[in-house]
Structures are given as structure tokens and as C-alpha cells.
Amino acid sequence: VEVVESGGGLVQPGGSLRLSCTASGVTFTDYVISWYRQAPGKEREYVASIFSAGRITKYADSVRGRFTISRDNAAKTVYLQMISLKPEDTAVYYCYAQDKIRGWPDYWGQGTQVTVSS
Is the dihedral of CA 33, 34, 35, 37 positive or negative? Predict the structure, then answer.
């Protein structure tokens, strides 16, 4: 099983980025996919989730209205569209796949760095 994030980079405040998460080796529709992030010196925090059919999404208050999570089950990919980025959004962003029924098995990706700075 492999969970891989991509799309991170350096962006100016107010800018946009789209992160991607692909999962191989699993039945993709069996998994709830979430994004978490971890800033330097801070604990990992929840960002957003999307359930298997893609109709149910959840967001942390800090990103609601600026981030949009979506999924393409045929491509086995989840996206995190981020707009109006702020310096406090700077973090390593991780993708997390969790079995939708039992909560396990679960898998983490290696993370992708997002830096918001002028």
C-alpha cells in the first residue's frame, strides 16, 4: 500500500495551491481520506476529510471556506484545493487513508511541504 502526496511548494500570501493524494494497493472507495498538517514545533492537526462517495466532506474551522477537498475515485486521487493562503497555513501536509467501516487499516503518506511567504 502506498499513499503519496504531491503539489506542495512556495506561494505568496493570498495565493493558491492544489495538493494531490494518490493511494495504490487498496480498494480506494473503501477508504475515508483526510488531510492533516504539521507546522514546525506544533502538533499535527486535522484539516479536512472526504468520505468514500465524495458527497460528505468535513473541514477544520481554520480552513473552512478557503480549502476544498474532493476526490476522483476512478483516478484513486483526492485533492485539496487551497485558496487565500496565509502564512499560518505553512506546514507539511499529510494524507491519511482510513478504512470507512472499521477505522483500520490506516495509512499515512510522507507529506508535502507548503510554505506561504512573501
Answer: negative
Opening angle at CA 84, ends 115 and 74, nearest 5:
80
Q: pLDDT digit string (tens) for 63-109?
A: 999 999 999 999 999 999 999 999 999 999 999 999 999 888 999 99
Q: Are 31 and 22 in contact (CB under 8 A)?
A: no
Beta bridge partners of 18: 81
Residue that is written with C-alpha cell 482510513 in the block: 98
Closest CA to 13 of 82, 111, 93: 82
Residues 6 or more apart whose Cβ sits within 8 Å of residue 17? 7, 8, 9, 11, 82, 85, 114
- Interstrand relation of 112-116 and 9-11 (parallel, antiparallel or unpaired): parallel
